[in-house]
Design goal:
There is one protein chain. With 298 residues, this protein is an alpha/beta fold. The protein is built from 11 helices and 12 strands. The chain has helices at residues 12-22, 42-45, 58-64, 84-101, 125-137, 159-165, 183-195, 215-226, 237-246, 251-265, 284-297, and strands spanning 2-5, 30-34, 49-52, 70-73, 106-112, 142-148, 150-151, 167-170, 178-181, 202-206, 212-213, 231-234. A 7-stranded parallel sheet has the order 3-2-1-4-5-6-10, with helices on both faces. A 3-stranded mixed sheet has the order 7-9-11. Strands 8-12 form a two-stranded parallel ribbon. The longest helix is centred in the first third of the chain and has 18 residues, at 84-101.
Length: 298
């Protein structure tokens, strides 16, 4: 039995799609934890065991992890959390107890790059993600943290600006290169680990994408794929803070984003070498052609 959390999110839904195709051939049953089962397609609900509720709730995870061999773990956004610890480790503590109580053998989680770097202790959401990994690893379960850079798919939040104004924004220096990964590749890495549970102990699995790109590089690729000029506009950290605050995000979470983006501009995502094992396959150009362009043209 494999349990999938956040099955309606951009990564969890892809993990579920892969497992729905591959798990039955291996005799694996699937269970999902979801707040609103109505958000699952009818065809999916017919093929999985559904546990309704939040995977931060002790009673919910106690039911969901009974008989489970493996769990895909992803913490959902909590814009009004009182602290980053509450948003990550606090949300995960009930699950960590349930992993032990039910003898769950393997857990795969979505986390961040940065462990072992000088900025790891002051990188906001990155720091909180790494602390969550330590909490899970401390239960004794076999654990793999998918150590991810920024997602290519985050650009989908700016489709209107890209389409209407030919502009996308971020806080990084325009010429700073860094890895980015497609969420589809992150999901594929998770599904592979959940299906092939020959691994033991704890560790990280970096998902780096095939190349490092700068914002200027991304603007050039988007311009070529979309057939129109796209330019990059750098946003200050204070403007980022104001934007999140204006959307009602709590102070602790806003500060976490500011600290994380500062650490990314300082190079926190650049500490892991790209190898055949860490280089996920989807190029930014391919992602633009397959994901961004259809979204812009919709």
């Amino acid at each position: 039995m494999i349990v999938i959390t956040a099955p309606t999110g951009q990564i969890g839904s892809r993990v579920m799609g892969i497992l729905l195709n591959e798990a039955p051939e291996r005799g694996e049953e699937l269970r999902v934890i979801v707040r609103d089962p109505g958000k699952l397609p009818d065809a999916v609900r017919a093929r999985v065991d559904v546990v309704t509720g939040s995977h931060g709730d002790a009673e919910v995870v106690d039911r969901a992890f009974a008989g489970a061999d493996a769990v895909f773990w992803l913490v959902p956004p909590h814009p009004r959390a009182p602290s980053l610890d509450a948003a990550y480790s606090g949300f995960t503590r009930a699950a960590a107890k349930a992993f032990t109580a039910h003898g769950v053998g393997h857990v795969v989680g979505v986390s961040a790059l940065g462990r072992g770097t000088p900025a790891a202790g002051r990188a906001g959401h990155v720091t909180a993600s790494l602390a969550m990994d330590d909490l899970i690893a401390g239960t004794g379960v076999a654990y793999r943290a998918l150590a991810c850079p920024s997602f290519m798919d985050n650009l989908l939040r700016q489709v209107a600006s890209i389409r209407d104004d030919g502009v996308f924004t971020d806080t990084a220096a325009a010429d700073r290169t860094a890895p980015t990964a497609a969420t589809g590749d992150i999901a594929a890495a998770a599904a592979g680990l959940l299906l092939d549970r020959s691994w033991t102990g704890t560790g990280e699995v970096p998902v780096l994408g095939p190349e490092d790109l700068s914002a200027n590089d991304m603007a050039r690729v988007m311009s070529e794929v979309l057939g129109r000029p796209i330019r990059y506009r750098r946003q200050s950290l204070e403007d980022l803070r104001a934007a999140f605050t204006g959307r009602g995000v709590g102070d602790a979470i806003v500060q976490g984003y500011v600290d994380m983006m500062r650490s990314k501009d300082d190079g926190i995502d650049g500490g892991v070498p790209r190898t055949p094992e860490t280089a996920s396959p989807t190029t930014f150009r391919q992602w633009c052609e397959e994901v961004l362009k259809p979204a812009v043209q919709a």
